[in-house]
Amino acid sequence: MSERRFRCAQAEDIERLLEIEALCFTSDRLSRRSFQRWIKGENCIFLVLEWDQVVYGYGLVLLHKGTRLARLYSIALHPEARGQGHASALMLALEVAAVEEDRLFMRLEVAKQNLAAVQLYQRLGYRVFGEFLDYYEDHSDALRMQKRIRYPERVREESFVPWYGQHTAFTCGPASLMMVMAAIEPATVLNQSLELDLWREATTIFMTSGHGGCHPLGLALAAKRRGFAAEVMMSQTDPLFVEGVRSAHKKEVLNLVHEQFLERSQAQAIPIRCEAVSVAEIESQLKYGAFVLVMISSYRLNGDKAPHWVVVTAFDELCFYLHDPDTDKLTISELDCQYIPVAKEDFAKMINYGRSRFSVALFIRQSDTHSVNECTVASL
């Protein structure tokens, strides 16, 4: 076989890449601008397959900030180079590069009717874990596949949690609570009406700008009203997010809302533990059957300096796995937002927000009478 090598894509490769793209795809093609952007991109791996000093294919992998997840965004091989082992070699080269970037998992989407590609990924160790209907421009369906690329599979503690994406920039809390409600009670209908109802019940009214996010006690009260048991763990019981608001009137409203939520939570006998949230506590709650909502600083995920609610769905020796309801980012798909692997040491940093290092988590169970955690039962 002639010499085959892999190298980083360069600007002078673009014409050849566009030619390969046109030969391989009838829709969902990457444009010249896209190739230019990814060649300059930082959070990606963009390799070309060079054979006899001619480019015959490429693979593009996205590296999602703050996680141990890599996602195969696009891969293409010139028809003349097929059937010679190049595709497998390219995939393995991408996996090696992702491991060097400290990623644990590779995920991808593939057209369901593309049996050759599906079989290739299966031979390489990828397993189907979901499906997207009407995913591509031609309305065909996609399979979702995943492979652990750094370590052998380890025992994982997890419960099935359906994923739901928020419809507004300020409803991550309601969306996260809805996922948990549907995990506990599968008959729960997940729609925007419920999302907005929960937001109206739990909102802080104001944030630093725009609409207010959801107060942890407001979310706990909303869960309680719907028959679920809720426990709140927070590092402080002082009013939240006031330091980021300049207006004296807004500060006054935030203080009043906080006091109302605190009084109503106490009246409803919702347990409130004034302690910093820890990795060990989250693990313990998951082991004892609780569903866990955590407020994180989204900076480590997407660069935004904002509090953001997510659901912890599982954990193993290395990682927590998150459902993130927010897909409102370029190149982010539903696949990228489910069971996101985040190393425990990274997650420990995410759960501290702001200068005060505020941390908060909600532990949700089926009902007050079905609580598994004896300490929670006693405090009720």
From TrEMBL:
CDD domains: NAT_SF (cd04301)
Pfam families registered for this protein in UniProt: Acetyltransf_1, DUF3335
PROSITE patterns for the chain: GNAT (PS51186)
SUPFAM superfamilies reported in the protein's UniProt record: Acyl-CoA N-acyltransferases (Nat) (SSF55729)
Keywords annotated in UniProt: Acyltransferase, Transferase
Positions of the N-acetyltransferase domain: 4-150
Gene3D superfamilies: 3.40.630.30, Cysteine proteinases
Name of the molecule in the record: GNAT family N-acetyltransferase/peptidase C39 family protein
Organism name: Thalassobacterium sedimentorum
